[in-house]
């Protein structure tokens, strides 16, 4: 579904652990950037590198390649549930437009490319380096220059990549071709598309997004949180009888180890986990429900290996970010 310049995944149509590129959500503040792979260049610069380095796509491909299965999710995914579930109006003045995601601002892929640490090593990272800020080639973006800084420890983490491939294929244009950042566990704004420059600095680098746009309780939003969502339209309509209901649960940095479901405030039952639970990936779950006519609410809640569980409710925040409450998914049975 088109939401301005973005595209929301039809979440109820997802039926596999990996999300095909053609079904994967697209979050754009402006138009996608078509970059000729033969002319593509990535520049490493800053006050905390020994030398400025400019790399072509073949240079990136010549480095050791790594594959990381990871879900990618916008920090504002599920924000319309503040309205649809909690009855709270979403409104704020900002330079950017808040995309009205329901469930489909998330997807899961296998991302491949060189480790960012290996790329930065080519420029010689100095001991005083504290911040790494990738910047996209979409410099005419109406919101702001997309230069998003991360601390050096996250940049050098072994699963942080310069992504070149998605589910075994070259990145599509809408997903950042020829190269984008892969920052598992962190919200989508850090996964900079069409990355053209990376600045390494001993001084903190700030940006509109980190200072104002992605801020919660005075702190810059970085990590995602634990969630579970049903692969049903919102609201859904089913026929009477037995149904196999599926969904996806995810948690950053710790595998989901249990998903439970409940109907109309009844007791919780354990759902079946249908895919491998991994550190950065989501898990597909399912359960069987015998639907009786009427209006119902199906709830699910996830728990991860660190003992984190979904809350019953979350407080509204100015950016309507990180909605992860247990969702009373409305279902009408004919």
**Sheet having the most strands:** 5 strands, mixed
Instruction: Please state roughly what percent of the residues sit in beta strands, choosing from under 5%, 5-15%, 15-25%, 25-35%, 35-45% or over 45%.
Output: 25-35%
- CA(first)-CA(last) distance: 26 Å
The low-confidence runs, each spanning 5 or more residues with pLDDT under 50, are none
SSE string, helices as H and strands as E: EEEEHEHEHEEHEEEEEHEEEEEEEEEEE
Helix content: under 10%
- Rounded to an integer in angstroms, the radius of gyration calculated over CA atoms is 20 Å
Shape by Cα distribution:
elongated
How many strand units? 24
Mean pLDDT: 94
- Strands across the major sheet, in which order? 4-3-13-7-8
In DSSP terms (H or I, runs of 4 or more residues), the helix count works out at: 5
By secondary-structure content and strand pairing, the structural class works out as mainly beta
Task: Provide tags for this entry.
8% helix; five-stranded mixed beta sheet; 334 residues; elongated
Write the layout of secondary structure elements.
Elements: E1 2-3, E2 6-7, E3 41-45, E4 53-56, H1 57-62, E5 66-73, H2 81-84, E6 106-113, H3 116-121, E7 131-136, E8 150-151, H4 152-155, E9 161-163, E10 165-166, E11 169-170, E12 180-182, E13 195-201, H5 208-213, E14 215-216, E15 219-220, E16 227-230, E17 236-238, E18 241-250, E19 256-263, E20 269-270, E21 272-273, E22 282-291, E23 294-304, E24 329-333
Parallel strand pairs: 3-13, 17-24
Antiparallel strand pairs: 1-2, 3-4, 5-6, 6-10, 7-8, 7-13, 9-12, 10-11, 14-15, 16-18, 18-22, 19-20, 19-23, 21-22, 23-24
